[in-house]
Amino acid sequence: MSSKRLYIKTFGCQMNVHDSERISGLLREEGYRLTEKPDEADMIIVNTCNIREKSEQKAYSDLGRFAMLKRDRPGLILGMAGCVAQKDGEKVLKRYKGLDLVFGSSNIENVPQMLRTITLTARPVVMVEEPPGPPKTTPADRKDRIRAWVSIMEGCDRHCAFCVVPVTRGRERSRLSAEIVQEVSHLAEAGYKEITLLGQTVNSYGKNLDEGLDFADLLRMLDAVDGIERIRFMSPHPSDMTPKLIETMAELPKVCEFLHLPLQSGSDDVLKRMGRGYTLNEYRRTIGYFRRLVPDMAFSTDIIIGFPGESEDDFQKTLDAVAEFDYDNVYYFPYSQRPNTPAAQWEGQIPDEVKNARFARLSALEKALAREKNQRLIGGVQEVLVEDRSKRDQAKLTGRTRSNKLVHFEGPDREIGRLIPVRITSASATFLEGVGLQGAVLER
Ligand code: 5AD
Description:
By secondary structure, this protein is α/β, with parallel strands linked by helices. It has helices at about 15-30, 55-70, 80-90, 90-95, 110-120, 165-170, 175-190, 215-225, 245-250, 270-275, 280-295, 310-325, 350-375, and strands spanning about 5-10, 30-35, 45-50, 75-80, 100-105, 125, 145-150, 155, 175, 195-200, 230-235, 260, 300-305, 330-335, 380-390, 395-400, 405-410, 420-425, 430-435. It folds into 3 domains: about 5-125, 3-Layer(aba) Sandwich (Rossmann fold); about 145-370, Alpha-Beta Horseshoe (pyruvate-formate lyase- activating enzyme); about 380-435, CATH 2.40.50. It is about 35% helix and about 20% strand. It is globular, with a radius of gyration of 23 Å. The structure holds 5'-deoxyadenosine.
């Protein structure tokens, strides 16, 4: 049987990127193979994101473009997946006549069944209902051969006033631990060296299961899988960073010395109105405990700029907090009013000019911090998991340190997939360069 071609366009977070790998993995079993060219595809899926308004607009404009392709190729199957699909459901069908398939992220496991229904009935299918029970294990068509994403839970039970995720990804549902361990064991057998566990609030794993396990217990189970060298996860919620979890992370050798811990704001008043559930001081205690147990721990964070009612004083507190916590990376976003979220209706919306000016100030601080942090590593030796040849310079290999920093250095192909000690010789704000110390023994 000749294979059919599938083109997937993905917007948004790592969860979405991995969801696309799962959609493609399931459709592979239905005879589809990925193509890079929408013009030659038999099926096109736009996997959408609506965390901020811009990403939603981009997804819709792409969908419109792909719907035009259908005029010349009526047999083309056109689908919309992800968070916009979940939120707009049937409404999308009215807007785009050519659509065949609309489904939310919790319905990925139903893709083969939906495809069969379309083929049988020649009518569009919409599926945005959460299926009962824990999310099912699905195959995934992973592009990378060394690092793998593993989804351990879906949805979110928190209700941050700015965030659309509870509307688009549903209630929190954890996968069964045995299925996660099995997936990771298979990845290790296939030669994968690093896993990144994914979930909207990844460290509240297990709360809705009756297995009696929490996230720290899951980390311990995965640390024992032979062949896997590194474990990362994202994104945790500060309120679920329990002392047990911090101590477990410090103890387990494969869990990397890197944590992305979204702060969102440095002002207690703003944090309270966001409904984040922690104060700056509580967050500070978490960082402090980590630094005591793991002195070289690297942190990154997310900040929202211009949340409704954010005063100059509130914003200054955010700048102070960013400097105090000495982050290795800061991701910052101007606040975007999302439909059906509480803060979208509040008074005190911040004008764009103010948001832009604050954005520029945080950006300058972040760049200075990142460069300075990286420069502190010059002269030292870092363990690098080599991923590939560098795209910018074929003579060089590229990989990441345990603290998640990109490193380029010269070396042979056989080092791809291996852990190599590298002496760091130069640093910019976004990457390091160094010299491979092949044959040297790394001490941890
Ligand atoms: N506006 C701006 N940024 C947002 N984020 C989530 N919702 C919004 C919003 N409405 C940011 C948060 C979150 C990251 C993934 O996106 O900082 O941690």
